[in-house]
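in:
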């Protein structure tokens, strides 16, 4: 399946408009334990390399994942096989919150950029009013010489960083505020929801926030963690929304699962067509 996946200026690099994420690869389904188990069992180390090589074939030149022993092992296996995609490093949950100097250890694996986990670090620091601690972690990233990223679920954190001119190169911006959605549901009904909440108004609010900053954004949760993939047309509409409500230097981050079809090829082709139509 041929694509003409565009690349865009991203800080001092040219990055493909589509990046591949790691949630399906490592079984973070954001849905239920059974789906997570299916994803984990499918993605042997060999399959991970095959998946990443397929991403390269369609023009994707960036992979984002959280740092674990398994993900670093797969990254090295991929590189040893000749893989050349850029690696965007995300901290594993709250590890950098608890041990900020872990940043320097993780930087030894040669990422292009590094970002504290949006929920485990960014959202936690916002909730606990420890933004000084978050900025200290970001300073450590700057000291590694890598691009400095900030992953956010709540648009409020982007506004604070912009208003105070934090030393950041790029944002990772979730179109759905999982913590905020759960909180609003609980306040309205008086009990916690059964599972994660994906509210459309969150998508609209984050889109406006993305357009406020000149910095490039890696936009994730575009397909609401698999909740909006009922048909090719629905997927197209979700991706089209993200493209039309973002900037020319922003990129989309999608988790893709190859067991039942070529999601990588299909998504790359769709984004190529939509970008051509937009231009």
């Amino acid at each position: 399946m041929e694509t003409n996946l565009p690349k865009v200026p991203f800080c001092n690099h040219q990055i493909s408009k589509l990046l591949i994420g790691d949630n399906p690869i490592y079984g973070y389904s954001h849905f239920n334990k059974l789906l997570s188990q299916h994803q984990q069992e499918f993605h042997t180390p060999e399959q991970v390399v095959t998946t990443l090589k397929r991403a390269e074939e369609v023009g994707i030149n960036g992979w984002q994942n959280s740092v674990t022993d398994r993900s670093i092992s797969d990254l090295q296996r991929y590189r040893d096989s000749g893989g050349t995609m850029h690696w965007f490093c995300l901290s594993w949950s709250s590890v950098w919150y608890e041990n900020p100097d872990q940043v320097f250890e993780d930087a030894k694996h040669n990422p292009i950029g590094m970002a504290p986990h949006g929920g485990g670090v960014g959202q936690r620091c916002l909730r606990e009013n420890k933004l000084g601690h978050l900025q200290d972690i970001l300073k450590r990233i700057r000291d590694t010489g890598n691009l400095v990223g900030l992953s956010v679920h709540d648009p409020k954190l982007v506004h604070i960083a912009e208003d105070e001119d934090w030393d950041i190169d790029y944002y990772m911006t979730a179109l759905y505020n999982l913590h905020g959605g759960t909180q609003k549901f609980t306040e309205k009904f008086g009990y916690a929801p059964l599972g994660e909440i994906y509210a459309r108004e969150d998508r609209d609010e984050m889109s406006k926030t993305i357009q406020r900053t000149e910095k490039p954004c890696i936009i994730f949760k575009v397909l609401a963690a698999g909740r909006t993939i009922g048909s090719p047309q629905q997927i197209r509409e979700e991706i089209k929304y993200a493209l039309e409500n973002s900037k020319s230097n922003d990129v989309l981050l999608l988790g893709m699962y190859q067991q039942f079809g070529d999601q990588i090829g299909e998504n790359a082709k769709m984004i190529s067509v939509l970008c051509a139509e937009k231009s």
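note: Residues 263-278 form the longest helix (16 residues).
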